From TrEMBL, chains A, B:
It comes from Antrihabitans stalagmiti. NCBIfam families: PPK2_rel_1. GO terms for molecular function: kinase activity; phosphotransferase activity, phosphate group as acceptor. Residues 41-263 form the Polyphosphate kinase-2-related domain. The keyword Transferase applies. It holds the Pfam family PPK2. GO terms for biological process: polyphosphate metabolic process. Signal peptide: none annotated. The keyword Kinase applies. Keywords: Kinase, Transferase. This is Polyphosphate kinase 2 family protein.
Amino acid sequence: MGQDVSLWTTPAPDALRVTPETTVAALDTRSTPGFTGDKKAGELLLVERGAVLSALQEKLYANGRSGDTRSVLLVLQGMDTSGKGGIVRHVIGQVDPQGVDHASFGVPTAEEKAHHYLWRIKNALPKGGQMGVFDRSHYEEVLVVRVHNLVPAEVWSTRYDEINAFEKELADSGTTIVKCAMFVSLDEQKARLTERLERPDKYWKFNPNDIDERLLWPAYQEAYQAVLDKTSTEHAPWHVIPADRKWFSRLAITELLIDALERLQLDWPPPDFDIEHEKQRLARA
Amino acid sequence: MGQDVSLWTTPAPDALRVTPETTVAALDTRSTPGFTGDKKAGELLLVERGAVLSALQEKLYANGRSGDTRSVLLVLQGMDTSGKGGIVRHVIGQVDPQGVDHASFGVPTAEEKAHHYLWRIKNALPKGGQMGVFDRSHYEEVLVVRVHNLVPAEVWSTRYDEINAFEKELADSGTTIVKCAMFVSLDEQKARLTERLERPDKYWKFNPNDIDERLLWPAYQEAYQAVLDKTSTEHAPWHVIPADRKWFSRLAITELLIDALERLQLDWPPPDFDIEHEKQRLARA
């Protein structure tokens, strides 16, 4: 027991938070910012920190059950194969499913298209006490939509401010937003797509469209850069997650969630009943 | 590795399925039907079988993503403290949260009351490829509703047939329903409620109403007996889970879910694209 948390020379939130200097095209996707341990050390530490995350999440859930309206929302963005699904399985999978609100956002349905683009997002927000997870999100509206010109530039270009305002409102109403942009290299993506084409147990994860999107890599890098430049705010900062090493991205996001929960300074909710009276009733029951 | 599955002398589905002789009032809630191992053996086996469950669930999810509309629905019923929440955490917590649709049914809201009692149930059914979990369910309509006379007997008495018909339709449309009724003894419930009144980290789980319900134990036993007698059908049989030993109820329900998934005879979905063509495209991309 007692894996070395001090392998983090800089706390994950500080090491990973976007700065004005963050440059998507120059990112080392194999790096492990702030963390000096290797894969083995990272995997061992994940088990231990997963238990910490789980304990904190139980407190969040307990408070939610007692009327606390605060929640945590993890927003995952990244190109295909960047490991968003793995984060859900291996990071969110560490906590009680009762307290998890998971939503993934694909191509909008006809009904969704008939509404404002934030409609389906607002419908999927976590309730008080819940840990929400968005696998893709409203940011698709300034990523895939921008890259493919699905709406005119005059339209998508207004969305950055709109998203900032939406997230401000959300943060003000008690949701701690943890935004993670996961980045793999072109080479690593090719290796992961190749695996999906070679293993029958992975075919289902492959979509020919993934290759079409891959061909638009520079346009996506530009779109991600704009997202980081325009929507990393004090109330909802972006974190850049180098994702070539899966063990690192999982450990890093676990740390970001622990940090978010710790900042809520949760305690066990006080009883809303008279303990002694209930003990007496129970003794007789 | 290699925990002894043969500690099950009778497979869990057979050992636990309700029979015409099942008598709620005579149940030994500390028993471990079909299983000869002790707590230590059961806990070790759970880890191993949890991995089997997780692998099967991934196949269900993969097929769902490929258009398969089949799903699995775990229905949990039981008195307060019978361990329903623990099943969600420790059994469902073994699988990928992406593939879990969790719903818990408390006192109906005003909106829910304005609809047929199956409305909120139908809204929460698992989609294709998902593993649904109901923490309490439509059975509350013939349990709490019956015990408290919330509607006249002429009304609730028609619901058994209505529920059977609903579940038949659900099963015919591809949902494998796994119904588990969890039973603790009066003594065990008192011990668990006492713990909730003594530990500040457990207060949030206590509700004074739990004691009121406890005082109606015989009426609930009668109501549960009627549920088992009238709604254990070929398409959706009930399983009786003795729940004084948490390790046993968790292992037992893991086995029931494994059995349900195995009966679907899932394979990895075939590719819906031309593998060689995609490999060539990827090589050039």
